[in-house]
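Late entry, written up from scratch paper. The run itself happened at the end of the previous shift, but nothing got recorded in the book at the time, so transcribing now.
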Amino acid sequence: MHKSVDVLLVALSSPIKIGVYENNRLIDTIISEDKSSDVLPLIYQTIFQTYDVKNLFYANGPGSFMAIKVAYIFLKSMSILKKIPLFATDAFYFNKNQPIKAIGKLCFVKIAQEIKTQKLEIVPDAKFELPVVLDYNEFSKTSTPLYSIGAVGN
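Output as recorded:
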């Protein structure tokens, strides 16, 4: 009998990080520098062979538009095919609410629950971390990517 787990994907930039959670606690971490489109099917095949996956979670942006799109399409397909709920939250949950590079000196920032772009003189290197304890209250059943956030400002 396989362990019942939740699986979280953070594919906003390289490397991608996948966390396996049992009773909300991180029990396994998978990190890959490979392209999401190449490696996600292989990693998730192993996860589905090893565990009984109850819920899928992911960071739906902001970040690399293509990485988010690939993650969403892949996870949404798995959600439908395997009848597993998919949940999402924004990237700021994974980097302690630090600015996230958009383009040039323009960064995404989250102020009072609203995500905007802002020019910063020093652009931080966003480090995304898997939480040790998964807080379900931070996630929504609305799992569509945050495409509406424009990376180009005035």
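The two ends are 56 Å apart (CA to CA).
(Scratch paper discarded after transcription.)
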